[in-house]
Specification:
Radius of gyration: 19 Å
Number of helices: 8
Order of helices and strands: EEEHEEHEEEHHHHEHEH
Largest sheet: 5 strands, mixed
Oligomer: single chain
Number of domains: 2
Distance between the termini: 11 Å
Strand content: 15-25%
CATH architecture of the largest domain: 2-Layer Sandwich
Number of strands: 10
Length: 262
């Protein structure tokens, strides 16, 4: 049995996926990225390999593709492919019906249109500002003094929305801290934050060619409050993938490895 690997070296998290000859996922790992991208990728690959009895090291993989922010730092990679292509392929593998993606990563937001074979038809990227990214949500959770998971659910309780006017992460955090200090309802502030990010996704959804549905990838796809806000603002159904949406880049990289290494 041959095995194929994909390692998504992201700015915030590093993910590794191993699939077999039939494309079945047999191992996956998600780790917080270190400053040293090589060490992060090596650790993720080591932990993924440990889940497959037939493998002793990443060198035993028939083919390995690196992707993401640090794709050039993935040890033993046979090839590097952009995260845009890998997210498209990963979503195609997970659910071939999905043709439009909003990928919310640690430092950028992307809109991706997927062709029938999993390749990229079109894409747009907002990488000039961290607002609306994973870093942004981490900053907001800190301002609320709660975990990211708790923050992602907070807005679901809100009956009203307190708008957040600042577009910059730093200014938005200051605005949120001021609102909390004034005693404003925290769930309504959270709803305003989720709504402001959803509005920033509007252009990305158009570039992705979304008409009636879209899916979210990246760690922020697990934010239930954001999912609800995006459905409301974009008037699109957000399809939940059957595989962890944070693994889409690594899964797509592994599928590219399977196609190229056979």
């Amino acid at each position: 049995m041959k095995y194929y690997g994909g390692c998504d070296s992201g700015s915030t998290y590093t993910k590794a996926v191993i699939i077999d000859e039939k494309g079945k996922m047999v191992a996956d790992v998600t780790l917080r990225s270190r400053i040293n991208a090589v060490q992060s990728a090596q650790e993720a690959l080591d932990q993924a390999v440990a889940q497959v009895p037939d493998l002793k090291s990443a060198k035993d993989l028939a083919y390995l593709v690196g992707t993401g922010y640090g794709r050039n730092k993935v040890p033993f990679a046979d090839e590097n492919i952009s995260e845009i292509s890998c997210h498209a392929m990963g979503v195609h593998v997970a659910d071939p019906r999905v043709k439009a993606i909003i990928d919310i990563g640690g430092q950028d937001v992307k809109g991706i249109a997927v062709d029938r074979d999993g390749t990229v038809l079109n894409f747009a990227m907002n990488d000039k500002c961290a607002a609306g990214t994973g870093r942004f949500f981490e900053a907001m959770a800190r301002a609320f003094e709660m975990s990211l998971d708790d923050f992602s659910r907070l807005s679901l309780k809100a009956k009203n929305v307190i708008p957040i006017t600042a577009q910059c992460t730093v200014f938005a955090e200051s605005e949120v801290i001021s609102l909390v200090g004034e005693g404003k309802p925290m769930d309504e502030i959270a709803a305003g934050i989720e709504l402001s990010v959803a509005k920033r996704c509007f252009v990305m959804s158009k570039k992705a060619g979304a008409t009636d549905h879209i899916t979210l990838t990246g760690g922020c796809a697990k934010n239930t409050g954001l999912k609800e806000a995006i459905e409301k603002v974009l008037k699109l159904k957000v399809i939940e993938l059957p595989v962890d949406p944070q693994l889409m880049g690594a899964l797509g990289a592994a599928e590219f490895a399977r196609q190229k290494g056979r």
